[in-house]
Design brief:
Length: about 160
């Protein structure tokens, strides 16, 4: 079971996330923007430019026990729904530190990439690994999932 971070631990982790994402913005061409969003929980929005998916984001949320990263991957498939979900679940078996999940914000069953790390394990390398995984898995799996989930839109027109 994870422990609850005290105020000093949370402040240390917040500063670490700020510094690591700031360095990513300066050093990684694909990272286009990093915004720190004020609120009860520490939250960062990272805008990423990709090749197979033009723009996407990684959203980091620091809680009392874990650092969570989430990225909207694709909308609910219009076609081959079960095959798309099966395809992504099979991919999950070899993925770390993120997995595909289905979430229903506003009623739509969209697909997200999601991962979480116990606050005791958060360091700069961990944050880099989470950000890199969002990029890598989106670039690797987006087009095949969209082709399956929106097959008729990708079919050649006669």
């Amino acid at each position: 079971m994870t422990g609850v971070s005290d105020a000093a631990d949370l402040a240390r982790i917040e500063a670490l996330v700020d510094a690591t994402l700031g360095a990513a913005l300066d050093e990684i061409d694909a990272v286009q923007a990093v915004e720190r969003v004020p609120g009860d929980k520490a939250f960062w929005y990272v805008r990423i430019d990709g090749e197979t998916k033009q723009h996407f984001s990684a959203e980091f949320t620091l809680g009392q026990r874990t650092l969570v990263v989430e990225s909207y991957f694709m909308p609910e498939p219009e076609e081959n729904r079960e095959q798309v979900f099966e395809h992504l679940l099979v991919r999950n078996s070899g993925m770390h530190p993120l997995q595909f999940v289905i979430a229903s914000p506003g009623g739509e069953q969209a697909v997200y990439l999601r991962g979480q790390v116990d606050n005791r394990d958060v360091d700069a390398e961990c944050i880099d690994r989470l950000l890199a995984a969002v990029y890598e898995y989106t670039e690797q799996f987006f087009v095949p999932a969209m082709r399956l989930g929106y097959e008729s839109r990708f079919a050649p027109r006669s």
